[in-house]
Amino acid sequence: MASGLSRGTRTVNAVLTAVFSVLAAAWILPIIIVFVNSFKSSSSIALEPFQLPTTDTFMGFQNYVTGINNGNYPFYMSAFYSVVITVFSVALILLCTSMAAWYINRVDSLFCKVIYYLCIFSMVVPFQMVMFTLSKTADNLKLNTPWTIPIIYLGFGAGLAVFLFSGFIKSIPLEVEQAADMDGCNALQTFFLVDVPIMKSTYISVAILQTMWVWNDYLLPYLVLDRTKYMTIPIHIQFLQGSFGRVDYGATMAMIMMCLIPIVVIYIICQKHIIKGVLSGAVKG
User: Fold this and answer.
1) Count of domains in the chain?
2) Are 83 and 46 members of one domain?
3) Domain end: 44, 60, 76, which one?
4) 20 to 30 Å CA-CA from 172: which of 32, 91, 106, 261?
């Protein structure tokens, strides 16, 4: 029976491996197609998007040069504003939501429970329901710059972040914090010196998830920012159009790859921390 069960387990594992390999290939295929097309001429992309470059269609890095230099708005400024918005937004989300989650779990009150469930509820509210009101409110409150839009991202990113942080904080023994209190630490010292190092994996997982969202986000910056002054990379890509709606597919593919590569590299490096942090935040407690 043991050997039969072992063979059954191996069969199931083999089937699951095959299924997930196919799913992984299907998931990666669009990225590979974009990468290949970023080195082809625009006309060949339109006619034969799935064909490998040939001597006649291969453009080298010309599409990347064209994409960077195309348009009246410099690409380096778009990249700069994307970095600023992403870094400030993620930092603000990590700081505020981790402290909020800690307070919610350590203070047993009706107010904290209401705040927690409001954060959870915000996860299911579609952005399309509030985007027009949000755009008007952002203009009135002067939140339409790269330096202030992180406040809006904090509101939209708080739900998932509070949920993950709360799940992990529940697993931290109170005795650890009580020992810090006996050593003379106040609440802030206990949080930053004791709890934050323990929550390292959750911090990394939340940071990566929020970074992928903010970096690739198109709609919120498009609605809120003054596009005559500020553009992010996704908005810059959208403006790679010539007269009469003509699109340079080669330059567009090249800019999409430049937008994808940083996030893919960061995700690969931090993958084990992401899985560990998500499981800790969603299962424990």
Assistant:
1) 2
2) no
3) 60
4) 91
179-221 per-position pLDDT tens digit: 888 888 888 888 888 888 888 888 988 898 899 899 999 989 9
CATH number for the domain that contains residue 266: 1.10.3720.10
Q: What is the pLDDT of residue 5?
A: 52
The pTM (predicted TM-score) of the whole model is 0.83
Given 45, 60, 75, the domain boundary residue is 60
Q: In the 3-class helix/strand/coil scheme, how is 218-277 assigned residue by residue?
A: CHHHHHHCCCCCCCCHHHHHHCCECHHHCECHHHHHHHHHHHHHHHHHHHHHCHHHHHHH
Task: Say what the pLDDT of residue 84 is.
Answer: 94
86 and 54 fall within a common domain:
no
123 and 18 together in one domain: no
pLDDT beneath 70: ranges in the chain: 1-5, 71, 241-245, 273-285
Residue-range definition of the domain harbouring residue 51 = 2-60
- Rounded Cα–Cα distance for residues 81 and 10 (Å): 50
Instruction: Check residue 283 and give its pLDDT.
Output: 47
